[in-house]
Known about the structure:
There is one protein chain. The protein is about 40% helix and about 15% strand. The protein is α/β, with parallel strands linked by helices. It has a ten-stranded mixed sheet, with helices on both faces. The longest helix is centred in the middle third of the chain and has 21 residues, at about 185-205. The chain starts with 11 loop residues before the first strand and ends in an 11-residue tail after the last helix.
Amino acid sequence: xxxxxxxxxxxxxxxxxxxxxxxxxxxxxxxxxxxxxxxxxxxxxxxxxxxxxxxxxxxxxxxxxxxxxxxxxxxxxxxxxxxxxxxxxxxxxxxxxxxxxxxxxxxxxxxxxxxxxxxxxxxxxxxxxxxxxxxxxxxxxxxxxxxxxxxxxxxxxxxxxxxxxxxxxxxxxxxxxxxxxxxxxxxxxxxxxxxxxxxxxxxxxxxxxxxxxxxxxxxxxxxxxxxxxxxxxxxxxxxxxxxxxxxxxxxxxxxxxxxxxxxxxxxxxxxxxxxxxxxxxxxxxxxxxxxxxxxxxxxxxxxxxxxxxxxxxxxxxxxxxxxxxxxxxxxxxxxxxxxxxxxxxxxxxxxxxxxxxxxxxxxxxxxxxxxxxxxxxxxxxxxxxxxxxxxxxxxxxxxxxxxxxxxxxxxxxxxxxxxxxxxxxxxxxxxxxxxxxxxxxx
Length: 442
């Protein structure tokens, strides 16, 4: 993809407007920004198009039989509305500044750290940004999950006059090499909201004024779909009224997320076969990354069967940073995809101390219970999703129905292909960001 290029530097160390909840007195209270690139409209089109096309090509074998349809979406993305019309409508001076940002936070076990992400800001004379977009990317690939290190395709939303905020997950960017807490919805959501609040700090420090009617919307798919919903919960239940008024959250687009990790685990354990064990094992690794300090004396070895350990699963999952591709390679010599051949009997025994501890901690990361959304939530899922069961979205819709702020479930027109569904979802998010228009496109 595109390397991290340092062209112009604006190093700032200023008191942060927002101090993250529960941060100890030893945590840094400053953040830093670096202006890494200034892109013309033409450069943004060219680089973003190449990035998206490159990702589609890289995952082509996994996108069958939907690659042609996704290629068509990519073509529409770069030849209609946002690009073909944008420059003519706002003038030749349209350009974009890409900032790398570091901000204070905590590790999963509560130690002070600095987290990172990227903010893309559109500039045009006499025109103020109208939207803030918190764009959450799936954390399974270094190239996709580290927006601060390359030009992300989601920066195309800036062409629609939106400030794009793209957080790196813990384990990527400034914390590269640290274990990523994949299934830690609550932790990851707090980090994402801290990044969003730091982006408002950045806009103030660089002198960017938002349009009087600006608002924020958020988007995420798969694990990032659950993180997006958890971010909305964090904003609406943990932030001050002043912070909520500053953000002006309007809606969240949540695609195929494990909103209830405990229900996800129950589904996995009761399945006859698992079509794609790689996601399940990464989620398992991520659970221990997020809650390992709370799981002592248990380790990831305690939830694997002896057969799985002998097949090398433990060696891969014990590594600091493991990719989806590595797990898939490991599973070429798997034990048949039967969960009972992979997981230990203790995990199936709901009365065991191990099983009870895991379910208690998973319940803490459930983001669809004990609150009702104040802002709109649009839910998307494929009925036959082979990775994240559709029942998780059905449960979320049912639990939120009394608030009248949740949409009907929009069915992504991809059958039994979680990865292709994600490409559809993100591309359509960029094409048609107004949620009331989604029903016609999914």
